[in-house]
Amino acid sequence: MEEASSVPGSSLDLSIPGICEGYLMKRRKYPLKGWHKRYFLLERGILKYSKTQQDIQKGKLHGSLDISMAVMSVNKKSKRIDLDAGDNLYHLKAKSSDIFYIWLTKLSAHRLFRKNEAMSVHRGVLHALSLSHSTLPVVGTITQQSLSTEYKLLQKPPCYPSSTSLDSPEIISTAPPASYPGATNKVSAWLQQTHNIDATSNDLARSQAELTELVQLIQRLHWLEGSVPITNTDLEMRISMQNLFLEKPKKKSGKFTSSHLSTNNSNMAASVQSIPDYVYSQLSNPQVTSPEAKKLHQDICMLSQRVYGSLKSIHEVLTLERERLRQAWTSPDLRQDTSQQLATLCTTLTERTPSMARHSRRAPSVAESTAEYFDASEVIMCETSSEAEASDESGLSDITTTSNSEPEEGHSAATLNYKESLKTATDKPILAPKDTGRRTTLPSPCADNSHIGIMTILYNNIGKDLSRVSMPVALNEPLSLLQRLSEELEYSELLDIANNTDDPYQRMVYVAAFSISGYAWASWRNRYKPFNPVLGETYENHREDRGFYYISEQVSHHPPISACHAESENFTFWQDQRWKYKFWGKSVEIISSGLVNVTLPKFGDHYEWNKAVTCIHNVLSQQRWLEHYGEVVIRNTKSDECTCKITFVKSRYWSSESSKNEIQGVVLDRAGEVVHRFGGFWHEGIFCDTMATPTCIWKPNVQPDDHLQYYGFSRYARELNEMNADLEIILPPTDTRFRPDQRLLEEGKVAEADKKKDQVEEKQRERRKEMAKRGEEHIPRFFRKVLDEAGREVWLYNGTYWKIRQDPGFSKSKNLALW
């Protein structure tokens, strides 16, 4: 759906839309399970929400969003509205189609109001800059007020232009350069003779305010005199301008239908959008014979006379000044100096801008301010199929879920305690050997992708699964998703410790720390994405220094599923991950629906847990940042003695940088009582203060000094794609290390990698077509599909990879030709 826009050069509609308030369903921020009911208030382009109407009236807000700065995507079928402002991402759902229609109308009207307001400021400044030097005193005043108004717009909800005078205590110096004394004398004499300029400025400002008031009075009278709306346009106008309360009264009411319309318009009524009676009653007005309507007539007449008098006076003064300006312009002394005068004006404005910026938190230029509004001017209608709709809700439980999405009592104090404890902790977990004998750097630094038109790519795929969208190779890092999965084993020593811990509750704490450690890479890896594996692609990672064998395979292409399995004398680790990438306008959510599994042989424990949601904010800019949020629940399927709940806290709009990436967790006994508490930050470490001795459970390894030059890779990540002569002989040709486009990118050959990536993807498509013609399906080589105890479809390792690798070897076996 295209948003209404103003015609260039036309007058802007600055009528303030009416307030809209009522309950909507909002998807939970965390633990991101289902939807909950929240009260929303839309006023002057700012959308606020809290639990109840009383909370909003008391100022107890849960969130606030400027809708003009957000991309709005809409799904009519599911009655959903998604607002993505970069830092904030709201998923909203209406209870009915008519309430959805009203909210959509209101949101569109408020967005257009804020857009027109910003454009009004922009036009005022451009107009001031275009005036000649003859009116520079007035220009300086207008420009200063326009800039001041713009900064106020950025600091608080914008106000409708008031009757503030155009006069200002500060006037930009506009004297011509001293090199033109004739021009200076003539301008000075002219200004001294101009006695009515200030009065005219006051008249203009007053007329502007009175005209605004007159328009509102006429519009209100129009509603009083008007009958029932007979077109959708008329209905939308009334909805936009009236204050609406969208909560249904206790008394039952029906829908607004053709019975509300006059009999003369019955033929047109069928096309009018249906709305509830209790909303329609707020749009209805008394008849023109009411005392209010009569008073409006009188007010309009009096105000019209005042406006007429002001405009007549202004016209007389401007006519006189126009003639004097014409005479002055013909003077050669002034004409030759015009260019220099305009340059002086621009320089003066530039010098004044920093001083004004000191009075605001952030004072961008006019161009920047306008760009911020127009960057998010689109409203996108997503008419997805029923299959896509169902996938949108995957992983979300019913609305009646009892988990709370707000921070627990004492949340802030606990966070500060954990942060301080991590800083002063001296007892750190055992780290893996530093000297692994593997490479410590990459062949080439990361490629610059700032020139990639990612906006065009993503906006054409809003609401779609981005795993199906082909991206330029410059957006990739030289690792695949199969290798990314193996990064979760970077801190496998935590599982070694867990397998040697007798206390089941402490054992659970170390398993929880391991589950959190798998997210640490994300703190430095938000500029690039991993390669999507092709069907049948494999990756092995045998780590003698860490004591485990890892194998993974891409077992399905649509939907994309990556399965992996790792074995050690202390643990067995496996998972199959189904990733979905959702783009919401300014943010990308990465949702995984698979479960992670770990067994500890010493105790016979089998732990399983879900994954948190990963979200990349401001994905269209170079100031991207990444966070994880949601609730992770760890269960031991062999015993109900204890469970663990971990909350990845979603940053809120008032959060500081130091409080982002928070996590807090508890280990519960069979009765649901807390045995251990732990917390910290997924990029800094985990601290448990309920053990006999408060302990730092985990801290991430220190990043290499040059990590920003090499995709943000840790020491462990740099080793994953390393190839040597010994590996080249024993690895199967389907291993990711042989993938040519990924290898070329690692070597810094971006253009060649892009071409090779297209060839690899085309070859995969051709292979699928040939198999479809033969009626065949791809059968994974090292994993098999089964149903687990809960009836879920999972992929398990079939135990053949390492046997074939040893005898007869992959060079003597039949392998897929993937590249």
TrEMBL record:
<keyword id="KW-0445">Lipid transport</keyword>
<dbReference type="GO" id="GO:0031965">
    <property type="term" value="C:nuclear membrane"/>
</dbReference>
<dbReference type="InterPro" id="IPR001849">
    <property type="entry name" value="PH_domain"/>
</dbReference>
<dbReference type="GO" id="GO:0005829">
    <property type="term" value="C:cytosol"/>
</dbReference>
<dbReference type="GO" id="GO:0015485">
    <property type="term" value="F:cholesterol binding"/>
</dbReference>
<protein>
    <recommendedName>
        <fullName>Oxysterol-binding protein</fullName>
    </recommendedName>
</protein>
<dbReference type="Pfam" id="PF01237">
    <property type="entry name" value="Oxysterol_BP"/>
</dbReference>
<keyword id="KW-0813">Transport</keyword>
<keyword id="KW-0472">Membrane</keyword>
<feature type="domain" description="PH">
    <location>
        <begin position="17"/>
        <end position="112"/>
    </location>
</feature>
<dbReference type="GO" id="GO:0120015">
    <property type="term" value="F:sterol transfer activity"/>
</dbReference>
<keyword id="KW-1003">Cell membrane</keyword>
<dbReference type="Pfam" id="PF15409">
    <property type="entry name" value="PH_8"/>
</dbReference>
<dbReference type="InterPro" id="IPR037239">
    <property type="entry name" value="OSBP_sf"/>
</dbReference>
<dbReference type="GO" id="GO:0005789">
    <property type="term" value="C:endoplasmic reticulum membrane"/>
</dbReference>
<feature type="region of interest" description="Disordered">
    <location>
        <begin position="384"/>
        <end position="413"/>
    </location>
</feature>
<dbReference type="GO" id="GO:0006699">
    <property type="term" value="P:bile acid biosynthetic process"/>
</dbReference>
<keyword id="KW-0446">Lipid-binding</keyword>
<dbReference type="GO" id="GO:0097038">
    <property type="term" value="C:perinuclear endoplasmic reticulum"/>
</dbReference>
<keyword id="KW-0963">Cytoplasm</keyword>
<keyword id="KW-0256">Endoplasmic reticulum</keyword>
<comment type="similarity">
    <text>Belongs to the OSBP family.</text>
</comment>
<dbReference type="InterPro" id="IPR000648">
    <property type="entry name" value="Oxysterol-bd"/>
</dbReference>
<feature type="region of interest" description="Disordered">
    <location>
        <begin position="752"/>
        <end position="773"/>
    </location>
</feature>
<dbReference type="InterPro" id="IPR018494">
    <property type="entry name" value="Oxysterol-bd_CS"/>
</dbReference>
<dbReference type="InterPro" id="IPR011993">
    <property type="entry name" value="PH-like_dom_sf"/>
</dbReference>
<keyword id="KW-0597">Phosphoprotein</keyword>
<dbReference type="GO" id="GO:0005886">
    <property type="term" value="C:plasma membrane"/>
</dbReference>
<dbReference type="InterPro" id="IPR041680">
    <property type="entry name" value="PH_8"/>
</dbReference>
